[in-house]
């Protein structure tokens, strides 16, 4: 397939990094199309683990063009640190293009993000305080600063003067330090000079890549239950990680997408606040968390853990048109008795198979489970046939319930610990 989208089918952290890395090695172009540096992909390369935050996952291959597209919000200072980090690890040859249309996360966005969260007290969103939400707010309010603005000093000056008039009033009202124009302006000129060689019009590059039948991989951050429109609002991210957003976030026609790979963890996790019907606040949850190393790539905070919820997964697959599932961290479930998969919810005495928009209703949903037998296997196996019957039953049920075939099964963190079904 020429154009493939990778999306998370749950609350994020599904293990997209490994599959993105796997598929990126077969691609000509790898694209980040939404989100910011509040989420990361963990990539293993040359025996080292890299936590990528903004850089696309093809960055370690000098033959791949990596694109940070229009729909991304980019912290330029964080990106510089990330580039310097991979340079220090010996990765000096890479191709990177940053959209001149992508909006920049400014230092005051981080300040405001933390302040907003503090004001919410018991109703906190669980934001990573990376400035993502406030940056998208400014984008929608038409006062954002874009990457291309860094290349036009006089235009940047005029824009920053107007923006700081608003931002400093907001910061002052929250008891926060105001920003000095000259200091921030000079910092932006400096970072602009550093990033200048990467900034370009990515929309035309991607359209031409489609026309040339290049193999393009679009990687999303987070998962579809964190979608700004269709997730557990307001406990969501500020953009859409769905394949549906690729045409908007990257500037390509919808018909260009050939293949949508939904990444599905063999169990469920989520970070931050909000309803989580299958959450396991017990020994089994703690066991899965430790076996799966369920701690944030960027934040290191422990993730909430639960049984696999197919009500969530099926809804998201149907919405995005996914035609393949990559089942991740399947090895984590070995040797666990009475594994369960959620197949329906009970809400106020009624059996439902959908996700209520109302958070109060969703919080009351009780999971209805199907139980599976314990299984065990060696991580060195190479084929689906080598899996025990009990493991095959778990996999087959997911396919039957969702109506989508599982094409990839991950049984370990190493790239080779992957079964192509």
List the keywords.
32% helix, alpha/beta, 12 helices, globular, 20 strands, 4-stranded mixed beta sheet, 10-stranded mixed beta sheet, 20% strand, 421 residues
Q: Would you mind describing this structure in some detail?
A:
This protein is of the alpha/beta class and 421 residues long. It contains 12 helices and 20 strands. The strands form 5 sheets. The chain has a 10-stranded mixed beta sheet, with helices on both faces. Strands 14, 16, 17 and 18 form a 4-stranded mixed beta sheet that branches. A two-stranded antiparallel sheet has the order 3-4. Strand 3 and strand 4 form a beta hairpin. The longest helix has 21 residues. The mean pLDDT is 93.
Number of helices: 12
Biggest sheet details: 10 strands, mixed
- CA radius of gyration is 22 Å
Considering DSSP H and I runs of 4 or more, what fraction of the residues is helical?
25-40%
Query: What characteristic shape results from the CA principal axes?
Result: globular
Residue windows where pLDDT falls under 50 for at least 5 positions: none
Q: Measure the end-to-end span.
A: 17 Å
Quaternary organization: single chain
Estimated share of beta-strand residues: 15-25%
Classification by helices and strands = alpha/beta
Sequence of strands across the biggest β-sheet:
9-7-5-2-10-1-11-15-19-20
Mean of residue pLDDT?
93
């Amino acid at each position: 397939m020429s154009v493939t989208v990778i999306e998370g089918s749950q609350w994020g952290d599904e293990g997209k990094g490994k599959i993105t890395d796997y598929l990126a090695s077969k691609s000509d172009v790898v694209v980040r199309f939404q989100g910011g540096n509040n989420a990361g992909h963990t990539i293993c390369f040359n025996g080292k683990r890299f936590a990528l935050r903004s850089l696309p996952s093809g960055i370690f291959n000098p033959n791949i063009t990596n694109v940070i597209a229009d729909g991304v919000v980019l912290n330029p200072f964080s990106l510089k640190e990330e580039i310097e980090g991979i340079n220090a690890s010996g990765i000096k040859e890479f191709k990177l293009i940053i959209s001149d249309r992508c909006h920049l996360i400014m230092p005051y966005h981080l300040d405001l993000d933390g302040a907003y969260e503090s004001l919410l007290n018991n109703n906190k969103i669980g934001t990573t305080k990376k400035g993502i939400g406030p940056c998208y707010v400014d984008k929608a309010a038409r006062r954002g600063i874009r990457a291309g603005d860094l290349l036009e000093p006089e235009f940047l000056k005029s824009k920053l003067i107007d923006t700081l008039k608003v931002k400093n009033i907001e910061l002052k009202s929250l008891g926060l330090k105001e920003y000095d124009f000259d200091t921030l302006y000079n910092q932006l000129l400096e970072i602009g000079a550093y990033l200048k060689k990467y900034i370009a019009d990515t929309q035309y590059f991607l359209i031409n890549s489609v026309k040339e039948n290049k193999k393009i991989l679009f990687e999303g951050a987070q998962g579809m239950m964190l979608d700004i429109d269709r997730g557990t609002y307001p406990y969501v991210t500020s953009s859409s990680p769905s394949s549906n957003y690729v045409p908007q976030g990257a500037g390509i026609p919808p018909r260009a997408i050939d293949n949508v790979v939904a990444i599905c963890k063999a169990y469920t996790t989520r970070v931050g606040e909000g309803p989580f019907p299958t959450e396991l606040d017990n020994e089994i949850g703690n066991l899965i968390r430790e076996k799966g190393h369920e701690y944030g790539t960027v934040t290191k905070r422990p993730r909430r853990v639960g049984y696999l919820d197919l009500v969530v997964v099926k809804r998201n697959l149907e919405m995005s048109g996914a035609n393949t599932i990559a089942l991740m961290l399947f090895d984590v479930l070995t040797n666990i008795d009475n594994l369960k998969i959620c197949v329906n919810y009970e809400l106020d005495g009624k059996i439902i198979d959908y996700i209520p928009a109302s958070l109060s209703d969703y919080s009351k949903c009780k999971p209805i489970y199907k139980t599976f037998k314990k299984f065990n296997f060696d991580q060195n196996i190479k084929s689906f046939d080598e899996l025990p019957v009990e493991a095959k039953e778990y996999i087959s049920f997911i396919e039957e319930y969702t109506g989508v075939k599982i094409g990839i099964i991950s049984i370990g963190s190493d790239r080779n610990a992957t079964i192509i079904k």
